[in-house]
Amino acid sequence: MPVKILMPALSPTMTEGTLAKWLVKEGDTVESGDVIAEIETDKATMEVEAVDEGKIGKILVSEGSEGVAVNEVIALLLEEGEDASALDGADTSSASVGGGDAEPAAEAPKQEASKPEAAPAKGLAPAAPVSGGDRIKASPLARRIAANEGVDLGKVEGSGPRGRVVKRDVEAAMSSKPADKAASAAASSAPAGEKPAAAPQAPAASGWNPDLTGLPEYEEIPNSSMRKVIARRLTQSKQQVPHFYLTVDCELDNLLATRKQLNEKAGEGVKVSVNDFVIRAASIALKRVPAANAVWTDAAILQCKQQDISVAVAIEGGLITPVIRNAGGKGLAEISTEMKALAGKAREGKLKPEEFQGGTFSVSNLGMFGIKEFSAIINPPQGCILAVGAGEQRAVVKDGALAIATVMSCTLSVDHRVVDGAVGAEFMAEFKKLIEDPLSMLL
Asked: What does the Swiss-Prot or TrEMBL cofactor note state (predicted)?
């Protein structure tokens, strides 16, 4: 029987998506790992690849279709020995697979194996690099998780079709590690801007029906998937996270002078921004105050050992937070180059999930818009987000006399469940020292 190709769940919050483009047509032969479509999610446009080999028998969802539900059958794949006649009467019903799992539906337990008339359901998997010499049968998602978590696939017993290693097999192997490694894994896999499994559900944004009486003529702009996710996440954060705020004023004159000297001596294509200094300073401050580098779960506070900085980037229709991994171990030039590349991919909608999921601390900078000071909403399950305002000349008191200095106001929004006031204040004190003594960041 033909194999079902399903609409994949490419992020934990994805319930539907847009089939942006087919890269194959009916009659084309595909192999496992071939990229066959582009799917637009609430976060980005992603390439997806075939799990099994065969011939594209029938495309059921045309490209450009919006609101395609996760696990809806989008095409049928003819396996070896099958021809077009096998498509007659083929089952095209959607598979019953738990939402939010990016694993192909075929790799769920075979609960209906006794029904020979039902076609096996196969999905799409996010494209991921695979070692050419690796003969281990594993789904792309399982390979990516294993690579990120240091799991040896050769020691994992597969429960998928023909012994294929799938997501749940890797997760089972991870759960057998010592408790401290399991906690670290949970922290590193907690998506930035996404809800961890233990977090409570947010109220449905669709329940908001304001009174529109008396409004002037208006244009109705339908809410995109991204806007719906943003609304749900921000409502959840403000309603369920106990925010408090800490603000410091940082003098920037030394930093601006250092930045100018660095950019004059930097190689071609490297131009360090004030925001790069902010990211660097935040990561070093987190090293010095590790209690601020933590995320919340109902079971435990997870204090992360690596500083993965989520940086808010405005894109059409919303915003996204690409992550600078291990920012505490990178210099200014490396942070600058990586941030420019991630921001460019974000605006083009080409970020991969691993480039925007995770993160232990967030930075949001509106200084380029002339915003003096603001308070950002925390990005659960993270414990803190730093809001950065514009640098402007202000009157300050130095040695008992008035003087002029370039000053930048920064406000830390803190989840009081994770970080106490004294810890937040200690972090801000370290951050201020670093910003006002930029040479210390270069050591």
From this structure: Binds 1 lipoyl cofactor covalently.
Question: 320-357 burial, b for 16+ CB within 10 Å, e for fewer?
Answer: bbbbbbebbebebbebbbbbeebbebbeebebbbbbbb
416 is catalytic: yes
Is the pTM of the predicted complex or chain greater than 0.85? Answer: no
- Give me the catalytic one of 260, 398, 416, 442: 416
Q: Which residues contact 363 (CB under 8 A, 6 or more apart)?
A: 275, 278, 279, 282, 309, 310, 311, 312, 385, 386, 388
Residue ranges of alpha helices (H) inside 134-197 are 140-149, 167-175, 179-189
User: What pLDDT tens digit does each residue of the chain (443 aa) get?
Assistant: 788 888 888 776 677 888 888 999 888 888 888 888 888 776 677 778 888 888 888 898 988 888 788 888 898 888 777 877 778 777 777 654 433 333 443 333 333 333 334 444 444 554 443 333 345 777 666 776 777 677 888 888 887 656 777 777 887 887 765 444 434 444 444 444 444 444 444 444 445 677 888 889 999 888 887 788 888 889 999 999 999 999 999 999 999 999 999 999 877 778 999 999 999 999 999 999 999 999 999 999 999 999 999 999 998 888 899 999 999 999 999 999 999 999 999 988 888 888 998 899 999 999 999 999 999 999 999 999 999 999 999 999 998 999 999 999 999 999 999 999 999 999 999 999 999 999 999 87
* Helix, strand, or coil (residue 339): helix
**Residue 75, φ and ψ in degrees, nearest 5:** -165, 165
Residues 6+ apart with CB under 8 A from 169: 142, 156, 157, 158, 159, 160
